[in-house]
Sequence to fold (627 residues):
Amino acid sequence: MSEANQNTQQMEFQTEAKQLLHLMIHSLYSHKEVFLRELISNASDALDKLRFESLTNPKLNDGSEPAIRIKVDKTAKTITVSDNGIGMGREEVIENIGTIARSGSKAFLEKMTGDQKADSNLIGQFGVGFYSVFMVASSVKVITKRAGSVEDAVVWESTGENSFTLSTGERQNHGTDIIIYLKDEESEYAETWQIKNLIKKYSDFIAFPIYLPDDKGSDEVVNQTKPLWRRSSSEITPEQYEEFYQQALGGFGKTMCTIHNRAEGILEYSSLIFIPAQAAFDLFSFERKHGVKLYVKRVFIMDNCKELLPEYLRFVRGVVDSEDLPLNVSREMLQKNAVMERISKALTGKILDKLKEMAENEPQTYKEFWKSYGPVLKEGLHSDYANKEKLQELVRFQSSIGENADDLVSLKQYVSRMREDQKDIYYITGDNRQIVEKSPHLEVFRAKSIEVLYLVDPVDEWIINDINSFEGKQLKSVTKGDLDLGELGKEEAAKQKKEASKFKKFSERVKNILAESVEEVRVTSRLKDSPACLVAGEHSMGAHMEKIMKAMGQAIPKEKRILEINAEHPILQNLNARYEKNATDPELEQWVTLLYEGALIAEGQMVPDPLAYSKRINEMLAKISAP
Ligand code: ADP
Fold:
């Protein structure tokens, strides 16, 4: 703090910033080298911002080549990272690296585990950025001048403990110098070869030249500057793609898929899209941003360009570089822009095609993909009508043939292994595999070896109506409507018809008893072992959807369902006999109510009045006579 002048002002860091700095200085010991990556990334952002702002205000730019310059002084143990980017004014300095903890930092603090290695990794994931310099610095000085401002340069200095000082200083042109005074024990970083290695390792794909003095002291560019997406994919190694994903896109972990493309013709653009191997932690949060950056003629325009891809592909990261959009494109302009719409359409198609290819050629990878992103991709069936067919081929479900939750089936595969004479595709919805697997509605399907899809993701209830049919086969819920298995259920249907007349009067009586709860009572053709089950009308919502809506706080009118009874079951035979003997048997009411409650429980629902239910059971049990 030697150069403090008269107008030096001391200010306190805001609490969260203090916490973060404290951690940086006292708790994180591994991966310290990432400080350089963070500073270079900030410098690159500042150059991007200048380039973008000077599109509309050319006076901002002083005409010098946008670049990052790094100098190392071994004797003084300092590293200086300079850029001629946008720079910061006094208020910006206070806001950006002073009082306020950025949102990334907040998320970082929340995710801290106390485990060294995991926490150091988090630095990369959240880009806590600037403050990470205090892992290696005993003090830091920032000299910065805002482009287009007449203000003096601002000098910010701090040791990272509680406070920083602000004063005015000298800087010829716009941009920022960050001077790092290394801690004694970190002086190994004050070596040019070290810095060069770190640039190669972490910042090779930064889109601006990074200059470093060579052996003779003259500046040389040490990174690759031609944008990777502009090169031919045959020149690029898988390692380079991975590095680009991590360095230029700030991607975390590895990728499971790379889609690199150049379109020429009506539309001209390059795109480089990655699917991360690991889903982002905020994939389902409302503020989730898209991970695609928009460039126009190699000029960075914006991060997270929502207009480039539909919501349901929000898990990808990448770059799109268009030749057709104007450089001064604004967010408002992008919203109903014909070029954007065409790029978005083409890109969506490319991604879906690639997924199809993955599903066919790398089933194991596709399984991983589906585990991470299946629920998100399924949203597309509801929102992207144009790609309905492609999406239908990509969806996977659990099913009654699969041995466990990992055993998935596509609609195509389902159809290919349908039984001869089977007309429809059957499914059941529910909370989880354990519940639907035991549902009485599946009894006849099991007996006849007919596969049933298990739809156990809440979003399935919505998308199943959007699918409706596949390859000419209707999708039918096993818990709705009158079951018609056609040829396959001929025997059951005949039996049902016969029993229905035998049980006609009894069914009416049951309907009377349960008038408040059921719409109809009829003899079933879908049960083998259970005495009764409940089915919804062909076009009604169904019990599971009702449950979901209720959980979401939606008021929905209660729909009465149909009670189907198994005429071959001893309980029903006995009850029918009792009824025939005495149509007004007072106990009949209790038995029938229990039958209904049992059907509710069997499908994982609650009985409406648990107290009355247990009382009923106890009364029945009390009638057991002593031996
Ligand atoms: P992040 O980059 O994730 O926002 P940082 O802590 O790294 O968080 O940086 C905080 C902010 O400080 C940046 O968003 C930017 O506004 C400003 N900043 C940092 N470095 C520079 C720089 N070299 N030039 C201009 N602004 C910068």
Q: What stands out?
A: The chain is about 40% helix and 20% strand. Residues 38, 42-43, 46, 83, 85-88, 96-97, 102, 104, 127, 129-131, 176 surround adenosine-5'-diphosphate (CB under 6 Å). The radius of gyration is 34 Å.
